[in-house]
Amino acid sequence: MEASRDRGPFRMKRLVVFIAQGFGVGRSPVAPGTIGSVLGLAWFAFLISPANSLLFALGLILSFGLSVLVTGRAEQELGQKDPGSIVLDEIVAVPACFAIWIIVAWRQSGHWPDAGFFFRSEKWLTVLGVLAAFRAFDVLKPWPVRQAQNLPGGYGVTADDVLAAVYVNLCVLGVYFIQPNWLL
Q1: CA 79, CA 87: separation in Å to the nearest integer?
Q2: Of 45, 47, 59, 64, which has the fewest beta carbons less than 10 angstroms from its beta carbon?
Q3: Residue of 103, 93, 180, 106 lying closest to 145 (CA atoms)
Q4: Which residue, 128, 57, 66, 144, is CA-closest to 99?
């Protein structure tokens, strides 16, 4: 009886690490951050599918908060500062990379876009370009992305990815001003 009570906290710790590792994808021996980012596309599709701006914003905010809590706890359990196996931060940041594109599409059409808008065959190269830009900013860590990693616990784990998403949006906005039809 005593042993089963002791396993409860152990199971919870394993669950926290499993979630922080992107439900296992962060354990990949090759490019775990990139694989986590691809999983972030699925999270984006889920958030955008209801075609509701409030649900999208709420999903982003809640997932950022969850990432801060879970990744900070997983760092403690793993005894490492922002280990490469923790990819929940990439997963939750990917939908934020599409914010400007969503706003442009919304403004142009008069309605909130759904997943079908982004995942049509003619949009896949643009989606992959957004994802590649995110990975580049996440890896290169221009100011203040690298500095954000110094925040304590899960804040540092998550903030650098959120800031990388901000850089992606600035790039998307720049391309939109040069080539407006690129996003539509």
Answers
A1: 16
A2: 45
A3: 93
A4: 57
Q: At residue 80, what is the residue type? A: Q
What would the pLDDT profile of 154-182 be if each residue is shown by its tens digit? Answer: 999 999 999 999 999 999 999 999 998 88
How many structural domains is the chain composed of? 1
> Read out DSSP for the chain?
-HHHHHHHHHHHHHHHHHHHTTTTGGG-SS-HHHHHHHHHHHHHHHHHTT--HHHHHHHHHHHHHHHHHHHHHHHHHHTSSS-TT--HHHHHHGGGGGHHHHHHHHHHHSS---HHHHSSGGGHHHHHHHHHHHHHHHHH-TTTHHHHTTSSHHHHHHHHHHHHHHHHHHHHHHHHHH-GGGG-
The parent domain of residue 132 ranges over 2-183
Task: Give the global pTM.
Answer: 0.91
Binning pLDDT at 50, 70 and 90, where does residue 1 land? very low
Question: Mean pLDDT for the chain?
Answer: 93
Contact yes or no for 90/20 (Cβ under 8 A) = no
